[in-house]
Amino acid sequence: MAAGAAVKSMTGYAQARAENDGWLLRVSVRSVNHRFLDLRLRLPEGFEVFEPAVRQQVRDRFRRGHLDLTLHIETAQAGAVQIHHDVAAAYLRAAEQLRKDFDLGREPDLVALLRLPGVVAASGVSGAQDEESLERLGRHVAACVDQALVRLEEMRRAEGRVLASEMRALLISISQKTAHLEPLIERGLPAYAQRLKARLEELLGSNAMDPGRIAQESALLAERADVSEELARLRSHTGQFAALLDNAGELGKKLDFLLQEMQREANTLLSKTPGLGQEGLAITDFGLQIKAEIEKLREQVQNVE
Question: pTM of the predicted model, to two decimals?
Answer without folding.
Answer: 0.70
